[in-house]
Amino acid sequence: MARAPRQADIAAAAGVSQTTVSLILSGNTDGVRLSESTRQRVLKAAEKLGYVPDPVATRLASSRNHMLGVYTFASAFPTDVDGFYYPILVGIEEEAAALGQDLVLFTGTGGLEAPADDKLAIRRTRIADGCLFFGRQVPEEPIDWLLGGGFPLVYIGRRDELGGRIPFVGVDYVAASAAVVDRLVELGHREIRYLRSEDDAPSSSDREEGVLAAAEKAELDARRIVVRAEDAEVAALIERWRGEGVTAVVVEETDTGSLSAALLDAVAAAGLRPPDDLSLAVLGQPKDHPEVSGFEVPRRELGRRAVRLLVDQITASGPRIAEHVLLDCIPVAGSTIGPA
Amino acid sequence: MARAPRQADIAAAAGVSQTTVSLILSGNTDGVRLSESTRQRVLKAAEKLGYVPDPVATRLASSRNHMLGVYTFASAFPTDVDGFYYPILVGIEEEAAALGQDLVLFTGTGGLEAPADDKLAIRRTRIADGCLFFGRQVPEEPIDWLLGGGFPLVYIGRRDELGGRIPFVGVDYVAASAAVVDRLVELGHREIRYLRSEDDAPSSSDREEGVLAAAEKAELDARRIVVRAEDAEVAALIERWRGEGVTAVVVEETDTGSLSAALLDAVAAAGLRPPDDLSLAVLGQPKDHPEVSGFEVPRRELGRRAVRLLVDQITASGPRIAEHVLLDCIPVAGSTIGPA
DNA sequence: CTGAAAGCGCTTACAG
DNA sequence: CTGAAAGCGCTTACAG
């Protein structure tokens, strides 16, 4: 394969030094003045040779290469939760394109390798100007290392680890969840149940926090509200709750959506028709069920904002401070909530 | 934070040269022998300093960077045809991860910029070791330029441009489509219609070719079989075909899936229930309609094979030849085809 | 067995 | 106005 042309090749072709080529191509006209004729000659030679700067060399020598990393702790294109992550990726791509940034997907550990390899894979993200991270857990050591080195990074989703030093763009699940319960209370519901998964992701505890805050405000018996369950237990719960006089059920929407799907199935199987027999709300947007009341997570915007925050960090001149952004959810009125 | 430690720091600490450190840390024991004591001293110093190799420098110094480009001519994450491309991306990511390659998504022109910019964006793909291309059209000039420079690239989808010099992994739509018509003929159907889009993508003409080949073999009147139509015209066609005694309809599945969706809707609206009132087949897999007869496009495998072909090209020692791979589709029996 | 040196392709002071 | 030189942190011949 013919070598890719370098600045030195352009320099030879244009009869100038490699330094001059670098100056002209990088548009680094800071305190420098170059004759227009030289400039044109260089530009023409570069065009003719089809010059493309080597991003790796650029990054070694300077600091930017206009590549943003995207690191997911599982798969960037998960098959079981595609409906969840896809809009975020769409947002990331949109904003990156708008800002002239390419994306580097680090495929590091597809879950196949030992978690020990995570460390190296995460450190490799340094080849980009900065990196977006997705995922429930935070591998503290490598992230701390990146942060300590001043490497720009942004998590997608709220992260409190490492003393709050991790910049993130998250979703205000607390407020959105509280609003859903508020609405039920306003409609006269007193016997409410909140069904959540066993998993302890921040997005789960945030939702619970919002639910409990609203319950407390309404002076409901908070101890009875929260119920942790597996998908398989849902049908039995529905039965029990009917006996307890429950009039409204709220369920967490997780990335797989399996818990809310299980609930919707169980409700239908029990012959209950919301909102008449039971009010139903999902803390999120269940797939293929736009009629269900709840809220919409601004996933696309999440991706866009994360990219913007990252680029801000990269271009920031002063010392960076950890930035934390929480986006509001969009309330979904739906048709599954009614008077108690 | 103090500077990240470099090999030179370790060298100083261990009292050896930086070269020796590099040799020991990279495990590059090829023709070299190092005393175990030196080795231990260096390893210990590296550990103590918390050394992590700089991936950027590593990649500059070695020739490959283990990054594969992914270039899409529109958006890598299209919102209207997500169901179509997503599995391909999944396959690409899987195989890339398995082969230890990172992915660079070129966001070049999201359709916003003039096609002239395509040229530069496409050339930028050279920062990777090789690149995968998606898309209906081939911008000949930049692709030719890449090919001429010996840059490894693979198209996803059959491409005949540039004198067949473009390596690709495609799908054997001809054979799969013919097989569907064969099946209908075996079941006694003689009045068959093939509904296709106006668009002239290779995947469309391949399907038509397969349909016509099967029709010819069965000595059907080929002139009446193929019908090009827009989504909006489908309902009227159904009506007409009933008058013509049509017993089976085959429809093309495009990336948006809108034509097959229009047909399924029109058939249902006309009160026709396949396979009793009409046999129905889709040349592909319509979204959310697993019961429809036809075939499944091996999209995930398409992504995987494309990655493998690309990596083969990259690692090939001798002169590369354009490789063309066609994958078989998986027949879907379905329940919408019956006897005439 | 180990080191001095060149080089990967750029940027960035520093000289003219 | 432009060039020679050093340097980013590593790898890889090439000498001892």
TrEMBL record, chains A, B:
<protein>
    <submittedName>
        <fullName>LacI family DNA-binding transcriptional regulator</fullName>
    </submittedName>
</protein>
<dbReference type="InterPro" id="IPR000843">
    <property type="entry name" value="HTH_LacI"/>
</dbReference>
<dbReference type="InterPro" id="IPR010982">
    <property type="entry name" value="Lambda_DNA-bd_dom_sf"/>
</dbReference>
<keyword id="KW-0805">Transcription regulation</keyword>
<keyword id="KW-0678">Repressor</keyword>
<dbReference type="InterPro" id="IPR028082">
    <property type="entry name" value="Peripla_BP_I"/>
</dbReference>
<dbReference type="InterPro" id="IPR046335">
    <property type="entry name" value="LacI/GalR-like_sensor"/>
</dbReference>
<keyword id="KW-0804">Transcription</keyword>
<dbReference type="Pfam" id="PF00356">
    <property type="entry name" value="LacI"/>
</dbReference>
<dbReference type="Pfam" id="PF13377">
    <property type="entry name" value="Peripla_BP_3"/>
</dbReference>
<dbReference type="GO" id="GO:0003677">
    <property type="term" value="F:DNA binding"/>
</dbReference>
<feature type="domain" description="HTH lacI-type">
    <location>
        <begin position="5"/>
        <end position="62"/>
    </location>
</feature>
<keyword id="KW-0238">DNA-binding</keyword>
